[in-house]
Specification:
Blueprint lengths: L21 H8 L7 H4 L7 E2 L5 E5 L4 H6 L6 H12 L8 E4 L13 H18 L3 E5 L1 H8 L12 E3 L2 E6 L2 H6 L4 H14 L8
Parallel strand pairs: 2-3, 2-4, 4-6
Antiparallel strand pairs: 1-3, 5-6
Bound molecules: uracil.
Uracil (URA) binds next to helix 4.
Length: 204
């Protein structure tokens, strides 16, 4: 019988589901070839952060810098994400940062549905192992694949639930680099998340 993890013929590494820690999971899946992105990646970008993170961010997928370094959000969008994290009174190492797909889509295109489907069980396993108190979805791609909406504006700023975890969709930092006035809106969304986590913004 096909398991739910074997979607559209994707072959996941054997036994990955039984990983009982993030490190075991990373070791089991880091050579994954379950979708076409495995063939063109330079590095697998598993995600990083605290194993007991209260707060998790989910982006779209690795870009050029992330593919080169094997780490999520290390390019220009990542620098802005770092500022967002610190404005929320967290340190980057206290939160967890992941993506819908763990391998770079060529030319930074949006991940295809089958690529996101192939990678989704890994992300769900990460969420299950970390059990954050809140998740922030960055941009349209995680909103589309995790919430089933067509666009970010359908859900932006409104609490959602993923596996029972309070989830706030907001704009992607790369969008904010192109549209700085939208930073105000994102800050309002992030303040809702801070309130849930008992954090207060620093007085200006
Ligand atoms: N954009 C993303 O969505 N994820 C990254 O890791 C980097 C840029």
């Amino acid at each position: 019988m096909r398991s739910i993890h074997q979607i559209r013929g994707a072959a996941h590494p054997p036994g990955w589901e039984n990983s009982d820690s993030l490190e075991t999971l990373r070791q089991k899946i880091c050579s994954c070839m379950a979708c076409r992105l495995g063939a063109t990646r330079k590095n697998f970008v598993f995600g990083e952060g605290s194993l007991n993170a209260e707060l998790m961010f989910i982006g779209e997928g690795p870009g050029r810098d992330e593919d080169l370094q094997g780490r999520p959000f290390v390019g220009r969008a990542g620098q802005l994400l770092d500022k967002m994290i610190s404005a929320m009174q967290f340190r980057r190492e206290d939160v967890y940062i992941g993506n819908i797909v763990k391998c770079r889509p060529p030319e930074n295109r949006v991940p295809e549905r089958d690529e996101a489907d192939a990678c989704m069980p890994y992300l769900m396993k990460q969420i299950a192992l970390i059990r954050p108190k809140a998740i922030v979805l960055l941009g349209a791609t995680p909103a589309r694949f995790l919430l089933g909406v067509k666009g970010i504006n359908e859900v932006r700023g409104k609490w959602q639930r993923i596996e029972g975890i309070s989830t706030m969709p907001t704009y992607h930092p790369a969008f904010l680099l192109r549209n700085p006035p939208a930073k105000k809106t994102v800050w309002e969304d992030l303040k809702l998340v801070m309130a849930l986590l008992g954090k207060t913004p620093k007085p200006q």
